[in-house]
C-alpha cells in the first residue's frame, strides 16, 4: 500500500520524517505540500502523477491535514477519476497507526476504520462521507 501525505506547507514532510523516526524507514510513504507560490491545480497535477506511477492493484491511502483545506480539496478532486482511500485530520500518532496497520497487513479500508475508532472527533474517512451523502440522496 502506498501512503501519500498531503498538507499545507511542509507539515506532511515533517509528519513523514517524524513517523520514520518512530517506526523506522518506510517504503511507499511520500509527502506533498502546498506552498504559497503554488496553485491547487499544480498540487493536483503532482498528486495525479503519483497515482499514475503507482503499480496497478496497489492500494493508495491519502492522509490530508485539514478537512476542507486546499490540499484536501485537491485530493477530493482526484476521487472522481481514481480509486483510493482518503483520511483527513491526520497527526503523528495516527500516522504511526497507519504504518502499524501496514505492518499488520491490514487493508486501507481496515486502517481507515481503525483510525475512525481511535480518533472519532479528529479523523474523517472521506470515502465514507461520500457514501453517506449518496445514501441520504436516495
Globular, elongated, flat, extended or rod-shaped: what is the shape? globular
Individual helix count = 6
> What is the CATH fold-level name?
Rossmann fold
- Widest beta sheet: strand line-up: 2-1-3-4-5
State the domain count: 1
Highest-level CATH class:
Alpha Beta
User: How far apart are the first and last residues' alpha carbons, in Å?
Assistant: 33 Å
Could you give me the name of the CATH homologous superfamily? Answer: Phosphotransferase system, mannose-type IIA component
Largest sheet: 5 strands, mixed
In helices, the fraction of residues equals 40-55%
Query: Helices and strands: which structural class?
Result: alpha/beta
Stretches with pLDDT under 50, minimum 5 residues: none
Mean pLDDT: 95
What is the chain-wise order of helices and strands? EHEHEHEHHEH
Strand content: 15-25%
Number of strands: 5
Q: Compute the CA-based radius of gyration.
A: 14 Å
CATH architecture: 3-Layer(aba) Sandwich
Detailed description of the structure:
This protein has helices at residues 11-23, 40-52, 70-78, 92-103, 108-118, 126-137; strands at residues 2-8, 29-34, 60-64, 85-88, 124-125. The chain has 138 residues and is of the alpha/beta class. The protein has a five-stranded mixed sheet with strand order 2-1-3-4-5, sandwiched between helices. It is globular and about 45 Å long. Strand 1 (2-8), helix 1 and strand 2 form a beta-alpha-beta unit. It has one domain: Rossmann fold. Helix 1 (11-23) crosses helix 4 and helix 4 packs antiparallel against helix 5.
